[in-house]
Specification:
homodimer; 357 residues; Dehydroquinate synthase-like, alpha domain; two-stranded antiparallel ribbon; 51% helix; ADH_Fe/GldA (chains A, B)
Chain lengths: 357, 357
């Protein structure tokens, strides 16, 4: 948090607003895994100031929060916006949303999705609305050159996982040739640019290409054949993880969960052709084991945790697995795939796999 | 031409129009390399009938013609629409355009580009306008299952060339990682689906994936880093070829020209890194020769001509090369790349290379 004050973006944006005679009221201090309380505060203050638009300046958490504010401004009470995340209220209007992106990861700058957390309920839920697409998003790769490496890797892993979530809806890659090839193109871009940025964080081309790949990853371009539907089970498992442990960043949680998710299903013979195709196209391998090994190699190379224990920096005990599994089952849904809602024993097995190297 | 009457599409479309109380006036008989005269006839008839929209039912030539009609309906005289193709008039309004696509190739269903031919002037010129985007395009892969194989290959080669035109603006693929990877994904899709369709023209998944890849090929998705600009020199050379020889189909001409275009520049050391990257990613090769050989293998495998002589079914003499080169020089531009307009001697050299196996 607070990076926009250090990297000059805040000054650039506010000067531009002033020069154009646009009044604004600042709300700052959005944390990773953005919290409901901050959103309620922002809605209340925005109503007091009679705001008629929302400008998000930051990364995924800021955008997620601003989408909640844009929707919440059209509701009677600030707290009512949580009903959208519980799927008990459908957004029919929102204030116009504008975006200046400072970290590439969530792809929230090119879609109408938002995630919000309630620490008090241990819930991290999401929803999408066509009313929450940014009117305009400004992306400047140079702004991201000063990001700490762990934040860059979180973004890299998030973009790869978004692309994988769309690909994972498909068991036969031949049915889905265009989507698989474009998805592979996006992931390859992230892998190449990630390795370049690890060597030189200021490489403009790598920042710019990763920035665009991260937007594409969640724009749905690789998901046309599925009508835009993704699997989202890895995201659901991660949102639970962050809900229980709010200090776990989204990208770090995804990195630990994705290889385990693949391993769990591959061992049952589920989507074998897809794992083999991705092993070949991404890592020059042949088997699902090559895909899992390729992803874990990537995480280790980038200094990312590969186990729950490394993620939480302590031993994981049975009670941790039980708590995660039970919290996961509190979700109103565990993915968007109509044909496959992850059952309790599978969620438990996947969390358990995350304990192993 | 006339396929919409055989494959049932005409009946389906006209029944739908009648059921919804939409009056229509039919203009049929659009040929490949669509001619200006037919467009003038259509505009005149559409004005007589007071048409307020244009419905294109067919492939690229029909769409190109219908875009000309949509623009021409807002001009005083039907013939004035040619001024747009000479870059002497800029379109500021057009009738709304709707599309039912019956062959995937030109990508005209997802952009505002149009090409038109004047046999009398030996000119085949194109222009783009945001006013000429279809309001809505309907694509059904099953309609294409009955296409003659040579028409399918024309479409395959056109889609590959469109993607290549965007990639060919770039000399250093590292500057352009996301675009190259997504472009490669599109071309790989076309290669795989083409081989499948050669074995089984009714393979639904291959038709559907090729259909979507062909739309993506000219949607600009792989050209974001170039601001949507492409090279378009291969297209310019082909439009000249079709202008001089109106029986040459666009896709067949592109197939002959593209390998020669690459060879001409590669021999001079122009864009070496790009050719080597594409040789590796598309055909598992290493050198520009591998890229050219891979493309020619593809053409031979699909039964496509690889020389001007095979294309025109006669010996090519010096007078042919001279005529093509001179006609090429009559173009108002020979590509959209501001930094590189193909000079006369280069055009001549490329046409000459097209004579060799």
């Amino acid at each position: 948090g607070g990076s926009v004050f250090k990297n000059g973006v805040y000054t650039t944006v506010t000067q531009s607003l002033k020069e154009n005679g646009i009044k604004f009221h600042l709300v700052s201090g959005v944390r990773a895994n953005p919290e409901f309380g901050k959103v309620c505060q922002a809605i209340t203050e925005a109503k007091e100031h009679g705001c008629n638009g929302v400008l998000a300046v930051g990364g995924g958490s800021v955008l997620d929060s601003c989408k909640a504010v844009a929707a919440g401004m059209c509701l009677d009470k600030a707290e009512d916006v949580w009903q959208c995340y519980e799927f008990k209220h459908i957004v029919t209007e929102a204030l116009p949303l504008f975006c200046v992106l400072t970290i590439s990861a969530t792809g929230s700058e090119v879609n109408g999705g938002t995630v919000l957390q309630r620490d008090d309920l241990r819930k991290k839920f999401s929803f999408k609305s066509p009313h929450l697409y940014p009117v305009c998003s400004c992306l400047d790769p140079e702004v991201q050159a000063g990001l700490p490496w762990y934040q860059t890797t979180n973004g890299l892993v998030d973009a790869i996982t978004h692309t994988m979530e769309f690909l994972m809806t498909c068991s036969d890659p031949k049915e889905y040739e265009a989507g698989v090839n474009m998805g592979v193109g996006i992931i390859r871009t992230v892998l190449t640019c990630g390795d370049t940025l690890q060597r030189d964080e200021k490489d403009y081309a790598a920042r710019a290409n990763f920035m665009w790949a991260a937007s594409c990853a969640l724009s749905g371009i690789a998901a046309i054949r599925t009508g835009g539907l993704g699997d989202w089970a890895v995201h659901s498992l991660e949102h639970t993880l962050s809900a229980v442990h709010p200090t776990v960043s989204h990208g770090a949680g995804l990195g630990v969960l994705m290889p385990s998710y693949i391993q769990h299903h591959a061992q049952k013979g589920d989507r074998t052709a897809l794992w083999e195709r991705l092993a070949k196209d991404l890592f020059g391998g042949e088997t699902w084991q090559d895909l899992v090994a390729g992803l874990k190699d990537m995480l280790k190379r980038w200094g990312h945790p590969t186990t729950l224990s490394a993620l939480l920096d302590r031993e994981i005990v049975e009670a941790d697995i039980a708590q995660l599994t039970e919290t996961f089952m509190m979700r109103p849904f565990s993915g968007y795939r109509e044909d496959k809602v992850l059952p309790k024993d599978e969620a438990e097995a996947i969390y358990r796999l995350c304990c192993k190297e």
